[in-house]
């Protein structure tokens, strides 16, 4: 790869990191409570609310069923409303976050379901409120698997961020399309693929390390 492409590559790398970190953070902040609500409002659980559970489940399933490339285009009006533009790194964060929130929600719900319900019953018998159970039983017991789920989400967002380049979202995907594909510069395409592979490996290794450190089992 020519020296002139180093600066664009570094800029694209920074844009990708920015998109992934911000969207993953938003997904964690909103997706973890969503997962808790999906579990605890189910029939027979501590905050049973079947109508709410069904509505949320339907919305989550509908959002997850839409391919990301279609979702990006479909919510362009919402993206413009929120950030004032539909092009660029900041604009790409909107569809990335919307795609990741229900994904995190389902992963968190699955993690919480693995907890032995006997622990919840014991906490109820000792007079714990539903919110105390969530804070002191559900989340601590499932922390390691939640972190693993967030790791999977972050890696998925790295792939989605590359797709965001198709509609001018910036990042490594945009660089690969503009130079690697449209200008037939195979070395640029190869460089972006290698950088993406390294990013995925680093995120996975870091996620595995943190999950092992917090795992109580």
From TrEMBL:
This is D-methionine transport system permease protein MetI. The chain crosses the membrane at residues 20-42, 54-76, 82-104, 143-168, 188-211. Pfam families: BPD_transp_1 (PF00528). PROSITE patterns: ABC_TM1. It is a multi-pass membrane protein. The gene is metI_3. Residues 13-207 form the ABC transmembrane type-1 domain. Keywords: Cell membrane, Membrane, Transmembrane, Transmembrane helix, Transport. CDD domains: TM_PBP2. InterPro entries: AA_ABC_Transporter_Permease, MetI-like, MetI-like_sf. Belongs to the binding-protein-dependent transport system permease family. It is found in: Cell membrane. Signal peptide: none annotated. Coiled coil: none annotated.
